Amino acid sequence: MFRSVRHMIYDLIEWRSQILSGTLPQDELKELKKKVTAKIDYGNRILDLDLVVRDEDGNILDPEQTSTISLFRAHEIASKQVEERLQEEKSQKQNIDINRQAKFAATPSFALFVNLKNVVCKIGEDAEVLMSLYDPLESKFISENYLVRWSSCGLPKDIDRLHNLRAVFTDLGSKDLKREKISFVCQIVRVGRMELRDNNTRKLTSGLRRPFGVAGNSGL
């Protein structure tokens, strides 16, 4: 309720500024005044306040100069217009909710949260740890890699991310849930010399990526 009234007040402030600017043509000014009065009547209705009856130009009718029958008919017209506006907004909201529910029902989305605690593997050099989802029956990966750069000291290269190595595999739909098996695969790539035991400084290389190890869990 508060958000609805706040939006209406913002609209009224904006329209009031346009009216006071004195730059609108007469036909646009007349239409804007009708829009303002309709918004006020609508706001009074949802706040359970009294309905103000108006003439065709949006001016408040004076009960001292207007007959009882005219006031009654004006009240009926105003009530009907407000009720139509309420039903219209209710219908629009229902359509939005139905479309949203249908969209989620047709394309449900799931996610897998991963929290890397430690890499218990004696590598000897810097490494890259890649985690991804794999379909063993189709022999293909079904997600992108979550990459963590691991140092030779047994800690993340980015020390600020220590104890904060988290990732979410998103947009897993109904097609993925129907897969017979989904494996969580972890690959380790060593980054450094061609041969780990090579100590010859003349042949020493660096920065080469060499496959080192792989592990998987098919319990997903």
- What fraction of the residues are assigned to beta strands by DSSP? 15-25%
- Uncertain spans: none
How many strand units?
7
Which second-level CATH architecture of the largest domain applies?
Up-down Bundle
Q: How many domains would you count in the coordinates?
A: 2
Structural class: alpha+beta
Tally of separate helices: 4
CATH T-level fold name of the largest domain:
Substrate Binding Domain Of Dnak, Chain:A, Domain 2
Shape: elongated
Provide the CATH top-level class of the largest domain: Mainly Alpha
Major beta-sheet overview = 5 strands, antiparallel
**Helix proportion of residues, in percent?**
25-40%
The ordered H/E elements are HHHEEEEEHEE
In angstroms, what is the radius of gyration? 34 Å
Spatial separation of the terminal alpha carbons: 44 Å
Mean pLDDT: 81
Topology overview:
Elements: H1 2-21, H2 26-46, H3 68-106, E1 110-116, E2 126-135, E3 140-141, E4 146-150, E5 165-172, H4 174-177, E6 183-192, E7 208-217
Antiparallel strand pairs: 1-5, 2-3, 2-4, 2-6, 6-7
Helix pairs in contact: 1-2, 2-3
Primary descriptors:
single chain; alpha+beta; Substrate Binding Domain Of Dnak, Chain:A, Domain 2; 4 helices; 7 strands; DOCK_N; coiled coil; small GTPase binding; DOCK_N_sub1
